[in-house]
Amino acid sequence: MRTIGKTPGTGKRTPRPARRHRFVGAGLAAVLSAGLLAGCAEDGGSSANADGKTTLSVGVFGVFGYKQAGLYDEYEKKHPGIRIQENSTERNENYYPALLNHLSANSGLSDIQAVEVDNISEVARLHADKFVDMAKEDGVDKSDWLGWKWNQAKAPGGQVVGLGTDIGPMGVCYRKDLFQKAGLPTGREEVGRLWQGDWSKYVETGETYMKKAPKGTAFMDGAAGLYNGSVASYPTKYYSAGGKLVYKKSKAVRASWDLAMRAVEGRMTGRLKQFDKEWDQAYANGTFASVICPPWMLGYIKEKAGDKGADKWDVAAAPKPANWGGSFLTVPKRGKHAEEALKLAKWLTAPKQQAKLFRKQGSFPSARAAYALPEVKDATHAYFGDAPIGKIFSRAAEGIPTVPLGPKDQTVKTTISDIGILQVEQQGKSPEEGWNAAVKKIDDVVED
């Protein structure tokens, strides 16, 4: 068995706050861009050196793990004429505006540019002509990827602007000791059956938990986690297949909002905002019993819960398959070495390399062919009771729906979570007041 979690470490891009508060002013973005993509293709960073080697620049945000997992070194050994230079910006909210600036200027781009899932639709809709069409490249087999992941990077004209890296199929991480004290089952299969097939059953389990909840504990961390898990399990959430903003009339949004409000009104949440210090401390203190968790969050939980949480946490299947997170590698056409960059991008995202990255860094593969490889198929996590995470998350990944993404998906999601839900959960506003506040903010910043 391949065991993950025996040594300290976290999954890709932990602690993940880079997915929040993306917006920065144009002036700041311009300043950032000067250093953000330093050594880029148009600026001479991708070039033939005195030793005859070609340097390929790779622009990423956060920790993608390629360097840490030794994949760059492995590629360079296989290709002696290539040197890889990674340019990493800590937070996507700084990286992405600068990337847009370079796309608009049509210069200053790295040979390979990473794009986060919540931004890929905007890139595909507005800038597809500036990237290599992966669908037409030799050696790129569409069937290697999950269908929904492949389609996320598809432009209206059919071009595929990027190759999928990781994904975030959701599970539910839970405290076995707290479940036992509340009279609930503790085995992961039994726990998964409590809410199988319906997010409302997860809330019903919370209602049962709260009847005998250990003193000072809540069933879940916060209502936003529940909302985001539920809304991501529907085939349509914020945008229609035709690209129209439909969140106000979306069945997914309404049903998920109502579940979140039910959890708040039932006092089953810890009223915590994810990735805040209070959330981290709650892990350490063991004050909530469950949290919606993609694979990359397991390392985060281990870090924050620490030794006191060892052998207390486990992971079960989520009520319905849903995704949280993931990225793509793109190859700008303007790069000086686009052909060599394409070879590297294809190699880094191939099933074998995705499996290696999962084994060493916890980034779950978007290449379905990787799921049959031992690094994924046999993976367990020691901290979570040797849970067979490879099997749990592979099953979830296969069932994730193809959800139309829009250019402001992240804005809508974050506003509903951080303004609408938190006003109700933390400030005592009514559900109607919280919803209206979120809608007003979205209307101010997003065009229909």
What does it look like?
There is one protein chain. With 448 residues, the protein is an alpha/beta fold. It is 42% helix and 14% strand. The strands form 3 sheets. Strands 3-2-4-10-5-11 form a 6-stranded mixed sheet, with helices on both faces. The protein has a 4-stranded mixed sheet with strand order 7-8-6-9. It starts with a strand and ends with a helix. Residues 5-46 have low confidence and may be disordered.
What attributes characterize this protein structure?
14% strand; alpha/beta; 4-stranded mixed β-sheet; 2 domains; globular; D-Maltodextrin-Binding Protein, domain 2; single chain; 448 residues; 6-stranded mixed β-sheet; 18 helices; 42% helix
Number of helices: 18
Number of domains: 2
Span of the ends, CA to CA: 50 Å
Question: Gyration radius, to the nearest Å?
Answer: 22 Å
Q: Summarize the main sheet.
A: 6 strands, mixed
Uncertain regions spanning at least 5 consecutive residues: 5-46
Q: Order of strands side by side in the largest beta sheet?
A: 3-2-4-10-5-11
- Assigned CATH architecture of the largest domain: 3-Layer(aba) Sandwich
